[in-house]
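Notes to self after the call with IL:
- keep both proteins in one doc
- input above output, always
- annotate only the second one for now

Protein 1:
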Amino acid sequence: MAKKIITLSAGHGLFTPGKRCMKKLDPTETREWWLNDRICDKVESILNVGDKFKVYRCDDTTGKKDVSVSQKIRTANARKSDFHICVHHNAGAKGGKSGGITVMYGNSKTERVSQARRLYQLLINHTGLIGNRSNPVYFSTLSELKKTNMPSLYLELGFMDSSIDTPIILTEDYSNKCAQAIIDFLNTEFK
């Protein structure tokens, strides 16, 4: 049986302006790319062992280059990926307590909505980071969802400026749990 191709995209580059944790919550202002990358690294290293999956990254794994969304789409499409996952962390809490995980889908087919809900539930089951989003699983017109030729999901794995989320998302344990949720999801989708 041929390996299933999975493409991962760690959002933004290491030096993308503004994409970092809020200084009053994280004095080192951890960059979003680092949070995204360590999750993608874990998923890639675990899934690339064995005969079931081949995982490719669509971003620059050093973080030094901010790969454009259009290039990430071209890479995923050129790889003829069976599934594409975009890993991001959010902002907008402005130091407050709002936050949580969200999963977006770009195709309203029943199957895609169900996949988004399943991955969201796995992320919540593994991490417990429910937050207070009124609609944590929703349709989006983001290009990386609309223009990829394969099923795609876009994850926002907590808020970098939330007084509740930030201490959690900075931990290695949290990144391990997010990676495991993604791995469990893909193993279930491709039995």
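Protein 2 (the one to annotate):
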Amino acid sequence: MKSASWIKIAGKMISLAALVCLGIALVSQPALSDEPQPIPESLNALAGQGKVSGVFKTLYFQRMFDGDTPDWSTLAIGGNLGYETFPLYGFTAGVDFKTGQGDYSNNGDEVYRGMLATGTTPKYQESYTALDEYFLRYTNWDAQVTLGAQAVNTPWLHGHDIRMTPKKYRGFGLISNSIENMELLGYYLTHWLDWTAEKYDSITSAFTNDTGDNEGSLTLGAKWKALPAMNLQLWNYYFKDVFNSFYLRGDYSHAFGNDYTLGVDLAYLNQKDVGDKLVGNFDTYTAGGYA
């Protein structure tokens, strides 16, 4: 058997072993206590008191077409397995692996995007395994600073977790809760990892389809709980030489007895090109909501 085949089989065995470990970790992970814990006396103890987390998924998708259009049929298993060290003077380090397995269990139909990786010729399903998070984090003074590949959760840059594994981002992140009833967030991101991708690409190339574009992005946001039933959030996303997005959203709800609740949710988005305008000239906005 060719060496490439042995490598592929070994990769599948490692990925399946990771899935087994993930299931064991999810079952055996002890409950976390809110009480402060003493600093471990050794590096082995420090590693042993870390936090294991994970998600296991089994997904099946099928779409049948008439005529000559190829059918879509994909069965896959996978998920994420992560580990973060016990905090030492506020510092932690973490890693996370993702995998999606199933190319050996499908019949050659075209894959549904985000379930498994897709080849180029032909465009059929391929299993994937990758290190999608690796970061150093500092937590203190009601703030959290993260440097490296990490999960991001903002309205327009987030994991978009509707497939096998979520998208991830690489750069710098800051979250502060030092102001009462307000959360301040800031991110400088340079690369992103798509659902089934195994390597990080420039975040600018996601919009321009040119891997040579690597200008990065700056995101600033504020979420304010103005009243017990009212939330406001303000965001600005600046993609150098691409575009700028300004996003404003507010929601309010009020209960009338036990039977009725009045809710209002309004949002406004403005986008315009900036700098070298790598995606062309545009200036547009949208506004809407519901009650």
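Annotation: Helices lie at 3-28, 43-48, 205-208. Residues 1-34 have pLDDT under 50 and may be disordered.
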